[in-house]
């Protein structure tokens, strides 16, 4: 009888121990599941967050691209062709305009017809040149100001309500800043060409040897935006569409070096 009771107690203890082990196992399993579930949720949230950031980044890039395109389109409407020789046709944008007419570029800076360019494009003060607007109309212009050392000039046509570009402050320029050059390289086929680059350097000084004399051009902007004959006098603009320089010199002895007059 005693042995029977002892065996019964032992079985009861074993059953209790098993029950406790089962409870602990259940609790541990639930604990592990909760941890795993939390990891899964966090992983999902992280992936979802990264995807959302990527989508927003792409949308922002598209928006910026659209804004830049609109800015360039607006400035391009104010870019003109300039020649020292009058064409007998309706426009100076001939196929061989860059050589036959000395075709260059200018940018309208006021609604009543003031145009900023290079002196070597328009000629010196009190001289005349010929301007073709975006709509193809051709006008005679008077050079009202010029400076040979700066290689800058302002000419005027008697036209009102013109689209014009905004002059920026070149003192706020920074190396590495994106810029766009607009001009009329090599004649009719490529009028108002837009090229992109960055500001490669600031405060450059370049010596120009011409007619047995040397001129030192100072406070220049160096850019890698592509320019060609006919781009001279065209605007260099920043992301806001403000004119921060005027294309002046292409360094032909090196690749990717172009010089613009700060404005």
Number of discrete helical segments? 3
Number of strand segments: 12
CATH topology of the domain at 165-262: Thrombin, subunit H
- Distance between the amino and carboxyl termini: 114 Å
Strand order of the largest sheet: 1-2-3-6-5-4
- CATH homologous superfamily designation of the domain at 165-262: Trypsin-like serine proteases
Determine the mean pLDDT.
Answer: 78
Q: Helix content range of the residues, please?
A: 25-40%
The unreliable regions are 1-6
| Overall CATH class of the domain at 165-262 | Mainly Beta
Q: Helix and strand string, N-terminal first?
A: HEHEEHEEEEEEEEE
Radius of gyration using CA atoms only: 36 Å
Largest sheet: 6 strands, antiparallel, barrel
Going by CATH, the architecture of the domain at 165-262 would be: Beta Barrel
Shape: elongated
Q: Which class do the helix and strand fractions yield?
A: alpha+beta
Report strand %.
25-35%
